Amino acid sequence: MTEAGPVSDAGPDNLAARPKSIGARIRRTEDPRLLAGQGRYVDDLQPPRTLHVAFRRSDVSHARIRGVELAAARAAPGVVAVVTAADLEGLARPLVAASRMASYHGTPIRPLAEGKVRFVGEAVVAVLAESRYLAEDALELIDIDFEPLGTVIDPEAAAAEGAPLLHEEIGSNVLVERSFARGDADSAFAAAAHRVGGRFRFRRKSPGAIENRVCLAEWDAGRGSLALHSATGIPGILRDALCEALDLPGHRLRVVAPDVGGSFGGKGSLYPEEILVSVLARKLGRPVKWTSDRLEDLTSTSQGFDEIIEAELALDADGRVLALRAEVLGDVGAYSIYPWTAGLEPVQVVGFLPGPYRIEHYQAHVRAVATSKAPTGPYRGVGRPAAVFATERLMDKAARRLGLDPKEIRLRNFVRPEDFPYKIGSGIVWDRSGFTECLEAACAGLDYPALRERQRAARAEGRWFGIGIASYAELTGIGSKISVAPGMPINTGTETASIRMDSTGGITAAVGIASHGQGLETTLAQVVADTLGARLEDIRIVQGDSDAVANATGTYASRGAVLAGGAAILASRAVKEKLLRAAGHLLEAAEGDLEARDGRVAVVGTDRSLSFREIARAVYSEIGRIPHEAREELEATRLYDPYYGTTTSATHVATLEIDPETYRVRLGRFLVAEDCGRLINPMIVDGQVHGGVAQGIGAALYEEVVYDADGQNLTASLVDYLIPAAPEVPPMTVVHLESESPTTLGGFRGMGEGGTIGAPAAIANALSDALLPLNIEIDELPATPERLFRLIRRAQGETPGNS
Amino acid sequence: MTGKRLVRMTVNGSPVEEAVEPRLLLSDFLRQMLGLTGTHVGCEQGVCGACTVRLDGRTARACLTFAVQAEGSEIVTVEGLGTAEALSPLQEAFREHHALQCGFCTPGMLMTALDLLETRPGATDAELREGLSGNLCRCTGYEHIVAAVRAAAERLAREGKREGPP
Fold first, then answer.
1. Is residue A216 within 8 Å of A45, Cβ to Cβ?
2. Cβ distance A201 to A191 under 8 Å?
3. Edge-to-edge, what's the strand order for the sheet holding A143-148?
4. Which residues of A touch B39 (CB under 8 A)?
5. What pLDDT shows up at residue A154?
6. Helix or strand run (H / E) with residue A467
7. DSSP output for A251-273
């Protein structure tokens, strides 16, 4: 469901005079192949002579590898090679996610565990066989002698002196430690009329893409080149990293992400398996393929969030926030993920805690602590879901303390329109975005006063009915001035587009980003069509291929539309200039009198025109039609750097009711009012918001990766790790504010992660609101029926039993 | 491991005969032996529903079925609906309503939806959600999938047609 929102009158864009496809619900170019079963995902590729990899993974948490017994596996039917770290020595340089953060300690990423294992699920031995069945058979024949080294599961214990060390050479399990301060928070707290605080726990999640990770490497000995097909969102980063690891130049190493079945962050980092298949394909001269199963995905794909946030707000007597203090401990798992580092998630929590509010004094301290769990990495929302959960809970606690409505306290504290650009305490700058407008639109969209009335009636009947609001702002489309993780030596702030019109008038636009469901083949074609005056059907987008442009990273951090869209605008403009110059010769008209529309260039005010095809043929094939010295190829490559990036904001409102017998939470309505700038394709934006909200609902109510005290992952199947299915997700309404970004080309703002950022906080606030009569605050997510049962029983003065 | 057995079945209307190991999963048989890679595998535990196919008129998890169990049966996979050039009404509705993003769960979702169209043509949205609850989608939040199945049901009823190749 989409409701039209107010459209900004600001018009900073320089798109074609009459944009037609931008803003339209264009059906996706990708769909026919995907609907007909003709998509090409990595596991669909079956080159002849492929060797299939199966891994013997660690079943213990933290242990020294004393010995490995491989003889039986090597003799098993169909087995071609059985490989340990020792067999790979000298074949690949270890990669370390580097950072300029002073306190940071990197950890090497190796294809197989060397010397010791640090989490259950870490790969120790690789078996290569003629089929996956045979490779898995041989796994059973491998014996590993482990010497336990002490499990490190609880992050607070892991950070303490004397804890067993996962990386002895670092001398501590703390991989990152940082402090942020602005103003004088302590004095503000001392003088404050009100203080509210809490200890917030946002539990560990798994990204849960339905396609598990898979990669296939092929070595071409004759050309000395490697092709890696991988289900990844970052082919450009992988290309550069593998060139380093394998000592190959970029023109002999190509990374392709063909159709990719979702990522949500889980396919946004370099993995040991990708190094391993590459190294072994080169060594053995045969294609090497690894297709993971769900057990491997839930135990070895990067996980998300997992913070303990102790935070406190100081307010004046009118409910205006004076100061915010926070102590954050991020449980980052066993390794510092490449290239983002262990700082990615927890450091962004303290970066975003001040939210869309005017908070003068800020003080925060954050540590990223290694534990014997799968590494955490990017996860839809990165840092913000946990930060927004804490901050929005604090706003509701403050409202409760002061007797204000949750809406009112937010209105009193938002950065106001006249304050933009506004720098928050952590240093992030918000540009003009509809903070207040989103909240007002959300409340109007649901008839907020009527909802409160309904709640009064429900409470009178003793029912637990709650309404929850969460407002947030996020930095999207980040440019080179601010990289997405502090101090990384890779450039995430630019994108390149290379656009060419061939001699038939066909337009190919190559970009460095990599779609895994976002529909970028459609939205970027819309941008090119409008800028160039082309027909959509004449445009093909090439993405997900490291050979497409000279330098690229990939798709992550809500950057695709802003960065690739901006680069596509710049390159399209350059091609259009060349096209009009050529048409000027052919039509004997001044360029200023020409107009490109619908794949034709026309002399304005006349019936004289030429199709793009005719112009292209004249330029390339019909030598002599254009003066020799004026001929130029119809192509251009342009780089776009939004420098700072832009601000996206939203308010989510959820209603729900808790079943008093089963403690099941039934969501009633879910409304998102968001400002992601100019919409390229409203249908796709709605889909991104819906999916993000569903993922946020999972984070709030169902999803939790659980490790026991011995470091065993207790949620290693989709029966135990609960992803929402259709009945758990309510009908959703999305209201678009569409105020064009003043700082980006095209006025686009990034979106894609937002749904997951707001929903957990909105649901936590709605649950707390429902349980107000019992004075229960929901400060830990997911709020499973068991957690709700225990909280409610305790509040009712009964001791929850163990059954 | 053990000797191969001959298995015969009809897949998307064509007779198929192959020698397979008894342990070969139907999903691997379809994908690797027949090259019908439209059927996807997401969990190999029968939870996610990506591998859903039609087996003798009923939905089945291809990852929980051995190829030899399908001996003599009639299988329909996503490739048995419309083609990329000529989508079926259900596929059209999925495209029109943006009911897919990454497309990985889509083949299984379509096969389950096909079953719903036939067995519960007048289902409410809540019933559709229950009916789709055995198929996980991480991208769409289900909103557009429910809308697409509803629209396909309405169109088929209006035109008095059955879902299938156009």
1. yes
2. no
3. A116-117, A63-69, A143-148
4. 37
5. 97
6. strand A464-476
7. GGEEEE--B----TTTTSSB-HH
10 Å Cβ neighbour count for B3?
7
Report residue A630 as tokens: 């004026």
Please give the order of strands across the beta sheet that includes A464-476.
A2-3, A732-736, A665-675, A646-658, A464-476
Which chain A residue's Cα is nearest to B96? A27
Which tokens belong to A21?
A: 């496809």
Strand partners, A707: A713
**Could you give the CA distance from residue B137 to residue B40 in angstroms, rounded to a whole number?**
13
- The contacts of residue A250 (CB under 8 Å, 6+ apart) are A239, A240, A243, A546
- Terminal Cα-to-Cα distance of chain A (whole angstroms): 42
Chain A residues touching residue B21 (CB < 8 angstroms): 133
Query: ipTM of the predicted structure?
Result: 0.98
User: Torsions phi, psi of A618, nearest 5?
Assistant: -65, -40
Q: Chain B window 60-99: which residues touch A at a Cβ cutoff of 8 Å?
A: 77-79, 81-85, 87, 91, 94-96, 98
Alpha-carbon distance of A610 to A507, in angstroms, equals 16
pLDDT digits (tens, 9 = 90+) for A74-118: 999 999 999 999 999 999 998 999 998 889 999 999 999 999 999
**Which residues are A465's β-sheet partners?**
A657
Test A36 with B81 for CB contact under 8 angstroms. Answer: yes
The three-point CA angle A494-A500-A506 to 5° equals 135
* Contact indicator for A712, A61 with CB cutoff of 8 Å: yes
Q: What's A5's DSSP letter?
A: -
Is B18 part of the contact surface with chain A (CB cutoff 8 Å)? Answer: no
Taking each helix axis from N to C end, the angle separating A682-697 and B143-159, rounded to the nearest 10 degrees, works out to: 120
**Low-confidence stretches of chain A (pLDDT beneath 70):** 1-19, 483-487, 799-803
Tokens encoding A799: 């001791």
CB-based contact B133 A693, cutoff 8 Å: no
Instruction: Identify whether the C-beta of residue A634 lies closer than 8 Å to the C-beta of residue A578.
Output: yes
CA atoms within 13 A on the CB side of A438: 33
Contacts of A514 in chain B (CB under 8 A): none
